[in-house]
Design goal:
With 230 residues, this protein is of the alpha/beta class. The protein is built from 7 helices and 11 strands. The chain has a 7-stranded mixed β-sheet with strand order 5-4-1-6-10-7-11. The chain has a two-stranded antiparallel ribbon with strand order 2-3. It has a two-stranded antiparallel sheet with strand order 8-9. β2 and β3 form a beta hairpin. 33% of the residues are buried.
């Protein structure tokens, strides 16, 4: 499927929450965190437009010169809402008021090790199983983290002893369309979503000083993670 337009949505507030407010502008490998993600989006040919919601004058000045990127400042989230990153459908609702088109990819800028090929794989799944009329089985795509754990109750008695897989929405990316979003009461995750599993390192969120230092350390030793850094 190539006859459709995909717009990427990304929100980069200058101050992000209570715990690590400057996280979007911290450096990894000589680049600020936000730039690492935007460059991946710019390199994906199937993304026609990138919309950045930001109150940063620096970002407004720099990205306003890009043909592929549109900079807006339409939604100022509360600090506790920013801590949820892109789980906020309120943010998505406001961004869609200022975005043209039908198909959208929304992600957060705080995942430096999210692979470009992972984003492209999620887009492929969206094309095959959401907008392809012949194979349509789902109405949206979202990323998940897979946990394989034993579970206990508050008295440390077993709830499940057989280590079942549990799937957690990790907030890294969502792909959806305007029609389904509105029909589901302004929700990115539809009634029949396709879940896209993402590797453990890709799930590392730079949402604390400790995780930032961990990300820097991982980046300096990329050779130890060949399945992530090829």
């Amino acid at each position: 499927m190539s006859n459709y337009s995909l717009t990427a949505l990304i929100s980069i507030p200058e101050e992000a929450g209570y715990f690590f407010p400057n996280r979007h502008f911290e450096y990894i490998s000589n680049k600020p965190l936000y730039q690492i993600m935007i460059e991946k989006l710019e390199a994906i040919g199937k993304i026609d437009k990138i919309i950045i919601n930001t109150d940063s004058n620096m970002l407004k000045s720099y990205y306003s010169r890009s043909n592929k990127t549109k900079v807006i400042d339409v939604y100022r989230a509360e600090p506790q809402e920013i801590e949820l990153e892109l789980t906020s459908d309120k943010l998505t609702t406001e961004l869609l008021k200022h975005a043209e088109g039908e198909h959208f990819l929304q992600l957060g800028p705080i995942f430096p090790f999210l692979k470009q090929e992972t984003i492209e794989r999620a887009i492929q799944m969206y094309e095959e199983y959401v907008i392809n009329a012949e194979e349509r089985k789902y109405d949206s795509v979202f990323s998940i983290k897979i946990l394989n754990r034993r579970y206990y109750d508050s008295d440390t008695d077993f709830i499940r002893e057989d280590r079942p897989n549990t799937f957690v929405e990790d907030g890294i990316l969502h792909i959806f369309n305007r029609t389904t979003f509105l029909a589901n009461g302004n929700r990115k995750v539809g009634k029949k979503p396709y879940s896209c599993g993402i590797d453990e390192i890709e799930n590392l969120a730079v949402d604390s000083e400790e995780n930032h230092q961990l990300a820097v350390l991982i980046n300096e030793h990329r050779n130890r993670f060949p399945h992530v850094f090829r």
